[in-house]
Amino acid sequence: MKLNRKWINEEFVDLSQVSDKDFCETMTIFGQKVETYERLDAEIQNVVVGRVLSLVRHPNSDHMWICQVDVGKDEPVQIVTGAQNVKENDLVPVALHNSRLPGGIHITKGKLRGEISNGMLCSLKELGLTKNDFPYAIEDGIWILQEDCAVGQNINTVMGSDDTVVEFEITNNRPDCYSIIGLAREAAAAFHKPMRHHEPEVKGSGAGSIFDHLDVEVEATQLCSRYTARMVANVKIGPSPKWLRQRLRANGVRPINNIVDITNYVMLEYGQPMHAFDYRYVSSGKIIVRESREGETLTTLDGNLRQLKPGMLVIADQDKPIGLAGIMGGENSEILDDTTTVVFESANFDGTSIRQTALALGMRTESSGKFEKHLDPLMALPAIQRACELVELLECGDVLDGVVDILGEIPAPRTIPLEPEKINALLGTDISREDMELYLNRLEIPVENGMIQVPSWRPDLVLTADIAEEVGRSYGYNEIPVTSFSTATQGGYSPMMRFENAAGNLCRALGYSEIITYSFVSPSIFDQIRLPQDSPLRKALKIQNPLGEDTSIMRTVALPSMLDILSRNSAYHNKAAKLYELAKVYLPKEGQALPEEPKHLVLGTYGAGETFFTLKGELEAVFSGLRLPKAEYEAWTDHPSYHPGRCARVTIGGQEVGVLGQVHPLVAKNYGIDTEIYAAEIDFSSLLSMQLPEPTYTPLPKYPTVSRDLALVCQESVTVAQAEKVITQAAGRLLRSVSLFDIYRGPGVPAGKKSMAFSLELRADDRTLTDADSEQVMNQVLTALKERLDATLR
Amino acid sequence: MKEQLENIKRQAMEALEAASSPAVLEELRVKLLGKKGELTNVLKQMGKLTAQERPVMGQLANSVRAEIEAKLEQRKVDLHAAAMEEKLLKETVDVTIPGKAVVMGKQHPMNQVLQQIKDVFVGMGYQVVDGPEVELADYNFTRLNIEEGHPSRDRSDTFYFTDDDSLLLRTQTSPVQIRVMENAKPPICIIAPGRVYRKDEADATHSPMFHQIEGLVVDKHITMGDLKGALTTLMRQLYGPDAVMRFRPHHFPFTEPSCEMDMQCHKCKGTGEVDGQVCSTCHGEGWIELLGAGMVHPKVLENCGIDPEEYSGFAFGMGLERMAMRSTRINDLRLIFDNDIRFLNQF
Lengths: 794, 347
What we know:
Order of helices and strands of chain B: HHHHHEEHEHEEHEEEEEHEHHH
CATH architecture of the largest domain in chain B: 2-Layer Sandwich
Shape of chain B: rod-shaped
Helix content of chain A: 25-40%
Strand order of the largest sheet of chain A: 27-30-31-35-34-33-32
Largest sheet of chain B: 7 strands, mixed
Structural class of chain A: alpha+beta
Distance between the termini of chain A: 90 Å
Structural class of chain B: alpha+beta
Number of domains of chain A: 6
Oligomer: heterodimer
CATH class of the largest domain in chain A: Alpha Beta
Number of helices of chain B: 12
Strand content of chain A: 25-35%
CATH architecture of the largest domain in chain A: 3-Layer(bba) Sandwich
CATH class of the largest domain in chain B: Alpha Beta
CATH topology of the largest domain in chain B: BirA Bifunctional Protein, domain 2
Radius of gyration of chain B: 42 Å
Largest interface: A-B, 85 and 86 residues
């Protein structure tokens, strides 16, 4: 919402002594946040009113003139102009040497075909104006001033640009502040100054009664709580006076003609959108406020043909819509230069309906923007009176007697008890009842016998808490003493959060960097990672109104997000990447309103030296660091997203917790990567319950450990895990660890077989082991290996 | 004999001084002090001496022996030190050769900032809690006093899963307030960081998914002064003890009174100008908007079964991306979700 300071200074509360900076600062702190402010005259510098004393033809040009111009200095200045509309004695805007014009244009003296020119005579356009601003001027020539001004006067004061426009961010709860009056009221309260009020008065013309010409019917009573109308006959369409045009222009509204300008002026002043219809085109003199019907269309004032949907609120005559209620009028009833009879409308339409219609038609307007904030229905009447008062002031028509005022259900006036103790308890202050009443009175909120009489323009004041805000901001939020509370709560993280932190620390220690990816993905990810059509993971939550297909479903699997990022890094020519994410997935559950949102730990890597086993080792390190029981790995040959020979199902304590492997080359190709990618996706949330208890001390061994190595020859199909299991079971309790240290195929080992070498560590807690002890263990192991795996000593 | 002893001593001292290696020293030791050594040989002649001479000579012989032994020991230490010095000199490396590279993973810069903020809150007694991202409209809007038809509920603003607009992606972390108050009795003192979603096209300053941190304190006698105190403490922990804060009235449906908190621009110290130019950090405003807050709306308390006559509380919410971008000077939001390792490695 824009506010030109001169307007409120002149009409409502004189704050002309307050600097722009102080005004903005005080208003912001008071609760009306200033977004920006701008001096209107900042763009134009050193341009003054001049009187043309003489003009002669330029000796070297057939179209230029050499003018001697009085600019209020001792000597006239010589200026060369190419314009043809200048005469002796004309008052003109003169851009002097070293002046600035809109658009950053800098004017300096120079020579034009050999003749000195000490500046420039300006046209409307060169001053950033149009014919709308000064209708008597021509567009293709110098602006010959017909203003009450003096030679040498700063042109900004002639244009009315000696003003500051302040732009406010108005909060949703204060629709009243979308108006000059509303902001003036706030300013008066903020600066502790009384505000001048003006009650519109319409004299009337005796030219007849509206009721002889117009019949209004509100069909859609739910969507229109008030409809007022007045009529003006013998309208003389013409430009508005300068003061009115200037106020509009300073607010960014283009002056059009007196009637349209009046509606815009009242909208700015009162915040009440208004509309003016040309009575000629109101068929049968009947206005109906109704919902639009199937198939109806309306060409709006902007010239666009609108296809209306049933339920949109329209203003119609007997036959057809003539306006889109609260949004924009129809071209078919537009005010034209030959309009003679005007119907003014000032109504209160349902904000939500207006907003939805504006949204559906893609045409948010100044008017709809105001309605959607829910306006004060009591404002409709003074606004229409003000419009008619302005008609009389501008002498542009005869206001007919009578006001159409159809009043539906409007909220009853509200009272709230003033409860100083409660307010002080909420604010942490000690403000007296008298001060509170003073604050409220400054805001024009009367308090009578301890009861706050809530004005109709303050629908936001309902509870004592709302009053506390008014008191608080009047007292000053920054004056409220800073205190500290003590509550009997204990801060901290949940066990799951600590678990996640630990996992993140471990991943980073292993060289993995964290990524953050979108939770919504494209439905094409399932094909990209080759999930079968019947995979339950394809049952994802679907966003009905996504930004695009690419972000339209909630991920049920996190691998694609990782692949996306790996692919991007590969495209950036990053030679290697090790990345992790603790990624939420969203799993819909039958019979549950909300999906489950477990977190998956995803590791992804590519680059020199990365293999299945580097990733596996790192995953094992993460598990170990998280104090999880030892995981088991089993070949997973038919996981669609992974290499069939390099993929493992990961289980802990018999429960499947995830997958680890080389990403299937076809999947990698789908992501545009042609190197080997390794990835693991672990159902992280399920791991916490598996965590082993906090460790306790175990006495260090007192007796030495015996190391024995074992090289076996066995069938290719025998896995390391199988051999380890047999060794562990057969060796018994003296075995402390078994670890693979070599796998060999080649000379000395028969074809189709391989040799696996293990290192065993044996130890007893109560004695030093003898050779016989370890021999016995090794014999047991060898026997078992032979029997169960047909493995022999090499 | 005395002469003999002094000769031995003199010669021994010279020879030991000249010895150039531990091996030569050992040879000398045997030669001088061994069973067949020179000193032993001389001592064997002690029997020929008179009873008066014997103790005198004995004493002399012992002192010569002790001196030789001491010299021997000293030379041994010297030679070892020299040998060590020579060895170490040979082992000299070029210390400017780079160290063996260790790949360190990095925490995403946004989570680094989040961690910092969470730690400050935990230190102040806040419990960190989590809430669902796929949320009921009832929690995201209705119970937070955001009425039907409110613009934020529009399909142009909020992502929905169902025709009846009952299931959505939460647009704020505030529904966690409701979930916490429903399940716990005051005193409540929590923060709830997490992802939120709004229908904005991704650009330098917008993202359809971003992060917020919600805070909620509910107890008896909680005041707006307490809110100011808590937030001031937080910001001074994050931005230093000299951080200057101001509070401005604002509007949120779920708090009343409501406010926004600004921090005085650290670059221009609130003047809006640096060297006569408009301050680039605060764009000339002198203040930087940090967060929204307020006293929990009585209706919200009631909606969660908490009696607003007995309890009061405050809540606040801040955008993590903005805080992270401010402290890390990241100038484009898209970088955060791009996850280029060259970007991640900078932090």
